[in-house]
Design brief:
This protein is of the alpha/beta class and about 230 residues long. About 45% of the residues lie in helices and about 15% in strands.
Length: about 230
Amino acid sequence: MTLTAAQFHQAVEGGIVVSCQAGLGSPLRDSATLTRMAEAAVVGGAAAIRCGGVGGVEDVAAIRAAVHAPVVGLTKEGTSGVYITPSVRSALAVGSAGADVVAADATARERGAGDAFADIVRAVHDAGLLVMADVATRAEGIAAFECGADVVATTLSGYTGDGPPAGGPDLLLVAQLRAALGPGAAILAEGRYHRPEQARLAIEAGASAVVVGTAITDPVWITTSFVRTVHQA
């Protein structure tokens, strides 16, 4: 059953969306492994799963078949610039793989051979699915919302050369988007949420939900954090 924007917002409201992705070279770079990770996250209370990335539609399809929670899907094409679901073609492929929501880069950067974000929104909506806009700034969030994005996420804050450097999570952007888009907009806080208390602060700042990836689903990062802390003691 296709989710409406209101149903998705209600499903994730006040919750944690877990990002189950693994890059090339990761020991976890396997659709079956990431599917089990998604299943475990749902058992733990995840409100939705964000997946795809370099695993693309294979990861999305495998996870969609395994979990009943809403699925936010994406592809990653390349390693720099606009590479998160950059085209209508990739967006429709993600939707066909079973995603309820298609996440795409909605920053103001030069899109190269990629399609305009507005074209992606139009095509995904025509397919009966929802669009999540991954943005880096307040202005980009407003523009994406005006283009028809059903969800606006702070995913790319600190990664495009605009806004604060990639340190902690951008709580200010969450608050700015809530003030600009109003109480009914679906706003997801994403990017460098490494501790539970940071997720709580994001909800208090106005986020509808918080996307957490690395701190939950990357054992290499988690182990490194422990090792580094112990060695500093």
